[in-house]
Amino acid sequence: MFHVILESTRSALISILAHGLRSFLTTLGIVIGVASVVAVISLTQGMSAFIGESFSSLGSNSLTIQSYTPISEAMRGVRARLTPEDLELIERRAEGVASITPILYASRSSQVRHAAQTTFSQIMGTTYAYRDVAQAWVHSGRFIAESDNLTRRRVTVIGEKVRDDLGLPENPVNEYVELGGEWFKIIGLLEAKGDVMGFDQDDIVLVPYSTMRSLVGNQSQIDIQIQLSLSEQAAVDDVTRQLTALLRNAHNLEPDEDDDFRINTAEQLMETFDTIINMVTLVIGGIVSISLLVGGIGIMNIMLVSVTERTREIGICKAIGAKRHHILAQFLIEAMLLSLLGGLIGLALGYGLGTAISSSIDSFPPASIPLWAIALALGFSGFVGVLFGILPAAKAANLDPIDALRYE
Amino acid sequence: MKLDVKMNTADENLIHLNEISKHYEMGSTLVRALDGISVKIQRGDWVSFIGSSGSGKSTFLNILGCLDRPTRGEYFLNGVYVEELGPNQLAEIRNREIGFIFQSFNLLPRATALGNVMQPLVYRRIGHRRRREMAREALDRVGLGDRMDHLPNQLSGGQRQRVAIARALVTEPSILLADEPTGNLDSRTSADIMQLFDQLHSEGQTLILVTHEEDVAGLGDRVIELLDGKIIRDRRAGEPLH
After folding, report:
1. Residue A321 is nearest to which of B62, B110, B123, comparing CB atoms?
2. Which pairing describes strands A97-105 and A182-190: parallel, antiparallel, or unpaired?
3. Label partner for A344 (CA 20 to 30 A): which of A7, A156, A334, B87?
4. Same-domain check for residues A250 and A187
């Protein structure tokens, strides 16, 4: 079998090169098809990187660490926790961290009340560092200060949506709200951020971390979240790895145990976008790959012409001992090589096209083709060659030797 | 080759045809291209079949060369009952037992002389290097050792026919089947080619030649005359030319 493939490839190459221009024109359909698929993919991949960049400039070059308990563990009553000691450990040991803050969510009611108005919001205990980590700036008043934390003041900074829901004035500073049965003085109003992917960034109530701790204090073991922002030079992956090692060590995890925490990045939102972009890529790619089918039909057409043209040669080969599979393999491999060659040219062309388009748009990152796209483009064009080569090759293989020899 | 076919090992004839007929339907008329031909040919013979056009000699040659099947009759080649073989087994027989030489040479136009001679060996499991050696030897044998890298259209008619003969010889076939081998050649080149045949014959090669020219046919050992698909005469020929 290998022998047959080798010999067929040899003669197919000779035949393709013998009709250089015709071979090129034949495979042009494949070239164009593959080029457009590759251009689309390289552009959307570039787009995805572009959106990622916009996201990080929006503010969150940050990581969130949460405890994580698998359902099977939770059923046994075991709960993983992140403790203030973990926070302290990270503060002392982790590199590449610009700011770090604990977040303690209200464990009971997240009801917020002002006068007769009641709403539900996300109540979080945190520190002054939250401002940098979450890029949360105050619109009026001030943010939580270190001293608020140290003295466990009952003060709060609220988001725009909460202010609106509670019917508070434009400047709600010095008003009081009731959180979980305790009264808090409003010291600041956050700038409106709008919502990102359906999450309202303004539906938020911040109180000092220590205050929150004292409120949930009757619980002996608390589970906090840690949010941190990275310094300029730090790479997300490096920091993530470092934090994982630190926390695994602190939690005494054996190498075969899974992490009992999750490090989430702002990239998770981006991943949602990526999913959408991948869908778009697939749909456009699917539409464009119709042109590959058209290219395949072009190859079939020329291969049929070629079989007719070489009828006599086929007759000669049969007379001197070629079997059906010899002829079949020769034409099939010729069609496949032709198509594959088109795929290669198309790949180069598509990449060039993508690069040209992306570089002509400002702030667009360079187009990039992932490896899977290369494999897909070449695999698909080879497949198209085989698919549309079958008919001509079978026609050639089934020729009657005498008729073929007599053919003028 | 598979031996699950009818064998007649007691038959010492290289070719044994028994009542071979080939009929065609042409419109509403039945054409009897061959009509009950029985011939035995021994190893090492040089037999010429002669007949005018329409005498059925081409059809006969196709059947001898395992390119075509008779409507009726039995054909034993080297003791193998050919009629029971499938297309791939016939291809194998053509490759191993038969060397074809055609009137119009039938070389592959895009392959060099060497490439053409190597082609039958492609269908055997012979490596490229060994093929090249064998093809060289065959081309040397027909006196074309210096033209191996020429394409067919760079060669004269006589040289092309020599390439074709080399291609037929390279597989060391039992029979060389030549169909009007000098039909497209001038008289001098024809004489050269016939001399080559004579030489091959003297080396023990079995030759079967189909022609309509009496002086070409007369060079063999035996001349069989065909007319309307039947053998009308089977005679000894005179001394071959030197």
Report:
1. B123
2. unpaired
3. A7
4. yes
Domain shared by A26 and A164, yes or no: no
- Taking CB atoms and an 8 Å limit, are A326 and B65 in contact across chains? no
Beta-sheet pairing, A261-265 with B98-101: unpaired
CB contact under 8 A, B87 and A324: yes
Q: What's residue B173's pLDDT? A: 92
From B196's Cα to the closest Cα of chain A, the distance in A is 21
Option in A312, A321, A325 nearest B92 (CB): A321
Per-residue pLDDT, B92: 92
Which residue from B minimizes the CA distance to A2?
Answer: B125
Angle, CA B27 vertex, CA B21 and CA B31 arms, to 5°: 20
* A324 interfaces chain B, CB cutoff of 8 Å: yes
**ipTM score of complex:** 0.89
Same domain (yes/no): A101, A231: yes
pLDDT digits (tens, 9 = 90+) for B150-182: 999 999 988 999 999 999 999 999 999 999 888
**The predicted structure's pLDDT at residue A2:** 80
Cβ-nearest to B95 among A320, A324, A401: A320
Sites in chain A below the pLDDT cut of 50 = 57-59, 197
Interface contacts (A, B; CB < 8 Å): 60
Per-residue pLDDT, B3: 45
Rg (CA), chain B: 18
State which of A232, A265, A298 marks the end of a domain.
A265
State the residue range of the domain holding A77. 61-265
Residue pair A152/A125 in contact (Cβ under 8 Å)? The answer is no
Tell me if chain B has a CB within 8 Å of the CB of A14.
yes
In order of start, what are the domains of chain B with their CATH numbers?
45-65+87-221 (3.40.50.300)
Residue ranges in chain B whose pLDDT is less than 70: 1-11, 238-242
Residues of chain B with Cβ-Cβ distance to A405 below 8 Å are 67, 102, 106
Domain count, chain A: 2
Among the partner-chain residues B106, B123, B167, the one whose CB lies closest to the CB of A405 is B106
Would you call A49 an interface residue with chain B, using a CB distance cutoff of 8 Å?
no
Of all residues in chain A, the one with the smallest CA distance to B98 is A320
Q: Write down which residue in A230, A265, A300 finishes a domain.
A: A265
Residues A344 and A23: beta-carbon distance below 8 Å? no
* b/e sequence A80-96, b meaning 16+ C-beta within 10 Å: bebbeebbebbeeebeb
Phi (first) and psi of residue A241, to 5 degrees = -65, -45
DSSP letter, residue A361:
S
Paired tokens of B176:
């060389």
Q: Residue B90: closest CA among chain A residues belongs to which residue?
A: A321
